[in-house]
Amino acid sequence: MTIARGMSYLGQACSAAEILSAIHVQSMDRGRGDGFVLSPSHYALPLWAMLVALGELSEDEFNTFQQDGSPLDLIPSGEVPGTIFSIGSLGQGLSQAVGLALARRLRGEQGKIFVLVSDGELQEGQTWEALMTCGHYQLVNLVILFDLNDSQVDGSVDRVMRIDPVVEKLQAFGLDAAEIDGHDLHAIANAIEAGDGKRTRAIACRTCIWKGIPSLSHREKLHMVSFTKDEAELARNDLAKGASA
Ligand SMILES: Cc1ncc(C[n+]2csc(CCOP(=O)(O)OP(=O)(O)O)c2C)c(N)n1
Fold first, then answer.
1. Residues 6 or more apart from 199 whose CB is under 8 A from it?
2. Who lines ligand 1 at CB under 6 A?
3. CA 164 to ligand 1 centroid distance, Å
4. Could you tell me which CATH number the domain at 2-241 has?
5. How confident is the prediction along the chain (245 residues), in pLDDT tens digits per residue?
């Protein structure tokens, strides 16, 4: 899709594919009323590709991505397929997920809220206000997964504005936090299961923004990816080889 449209958020697909799969295929129970909030909505493309693989979105609809009138925008917002909602204005998704989880608890409703948050959003104050709220209310019906891909618009998160040590900070805010390899499907699903059941579970997933496409590894910025014809060929070869980062 990135090649077809000239450019897109491909690195986010490389970093978060396993996180999205673990949430949607292994951990979420729709029968129980579980739901997903995508805070960084520019991550929607891999979510939709996965829904196509699961048979929950048609190829025809997927192919309307970034076309006039399609709900499948590059940076979608509102009722986004596969989500309870998604937010184009970064830093707000966790607050809304916290509100949802708290409302469900107050109403005695079942079902967990899973929320994906990007590392750039950990530079925004509102995210920390939401985390403080989790610590206060101990929302056990909320599971937060952070994609720590060390990428933001201007390059490395660590260089632009360091957020580490993330796990220690989450623990200090009263969350049940763990750090894992965000490309290990089983580790992600296990980490979701392994929560203490008393505090909000927060999982820091360390990932690689060019995972699976090593021909991109020399690029300093991978927030948005475009290809020349030759680069597209190299990327296709990488994917065909199933090359790993
Ligand atoms: C409040 C807000 N500020 C700025 C933007 C523009 N923006 C879109 S994506 C992005 C990068 C955010 O960091 P992250 O999601 O960690 O980057 P990635 O991993 O996708 O490279 C920014 C600043 C936005 N959508 N919302």
1. 134, 135, 138, 140, 174, 175, 176
2. 12, 40, 42, 88-91, 118-120, 149, 151-153, 223
3. 18
4. 3.40.50.970
5. 999 999 999 999 999 999 999 999 999 999 999 999 999 999 999 999 999 999 999 999 999 999 999 999 999 987 799 999 888 899 999 999 999 999 999 999 999 999 999 999 999 999 999 999 999 999 999 999 999 999 999 999 999 999 999 999 999 999 999 999 999 999 999 999 999 999 999 999 999 999 999 999 999 999 999 999 999 999 999 999 985 54
Cα 38–Cα 43–Cα 47 angle in degrees, nearest 5:
75
Out of 38, 118, 224, mutate this one to test ligand 1's pocket (max ligand atoms within 8 Å of CB): namely 118
Residue nearest to atom 18 of ligand 1 (CA): 152
* Mutation to probe ligand 1, out of 42, 121, 149 (largest number of atoms < 8 A from CB): 42
CB atoms within 10 A of CB 135: 17
Tell me how far the alpha carbon of residue 150 lies from the centroid of ligand 1, in angstroms.
12
In contact, 158 and 142? CB cutoff 8 Å: no
